[in-house]
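job 3f2a | input accepted
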Amino acid sequence: MDHDDLKLELKTEADRLGFSLFGVTTSEPPEHLSYYQSWVKRGYHGGMDYLIRKDTLQKRADPRLLLPGCRSIICLGFPYPLVNAVEDFYIASFARMEDYHTLLPRLLSHLLEFLAQYSTSVDRTRIFTDSAPILERELAARAGLGWIGKNSCLISPSAGSVFLLAEIFTTLELKPDPPFTNDRCGNCDRCIRNCPTNCILPNRTIDAGGCISYMTIENTCSIPEDYRELIGDKVFGCDICQQVCPWNKKGLVSNNPAPEIIDAGGFSLLAQMTDREFKNRFASSALLRTGRLGLLRNGLIAMGNSLDIIYLPVLKEIESLEIDPKILDLTEWAKEKIRSAHESE
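job 3f2a | predicted structure (345 res):
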């Protein structure tokens, strides 16, 4: 089988596995590394210090450091449904399924088994899905999957921006696809206008420190009081800039429920759990990322923002169970916020 036929077979198999977006690019260094370097230099990476380590900066500058002899990079997109949820506590759409850190590598391994049937013993490959220092949106645009939108997400004409990226680095030389060079955002700025924290920057990057997704997932510290009201009902991530994007209109659904623990009683249950119990409960969920206290922190903010007195008994129960001073302070903040809203009634 020649390489053109192999590429077609790979694309067909990838589509069968759920990767409906497929493209190939070379292993050449990214052209727009300077944007990333400027971004981290200005401190827009928030508290994610792993993004600025010298070794990771070097690998982002040259993908071939991740696989010596790499000739081709297969870029894949795995779409998922965008939820327009009605629950009291909002969970980002990607977290309403099995954690993609385990799901996508499992699917990619099947693709590698398929590839191994047609490659030689000297061919080498590596798979990645948010697991290595790669400027994956630029590579995906270079592979023809879409363009980087004003909200910094990669947008595909067929799938919008609601998909997860993955890559296969290989020493096989496959024909690259033409890059996607059109900017189809046009004059639209809905993502910018609707961002509660105004964290979307003019150059298609974001100030991660002010992003609700960062604050409720990656951030391990207390959330500044100035941001708490802006977070609203978000307890894990935020889809607002994607929900308002015209390219995602077809992706809105309402039948993909959040994990059952995420309700008022669930947050009191979190206060009763040990960290080990939390890890066991959420072993296959992206919610594991926050840790028990991080998820409880987010729930307390959402309850306070609700201004609903039905949460006062839950907050009192959490206060009686929890010993962490940051959680106790936040519990008092939420109680006071709800009480203040009802003082004049």
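job 3f2a | The two ends are 76 Å apart (CA to CA).
job 3f2a | closed
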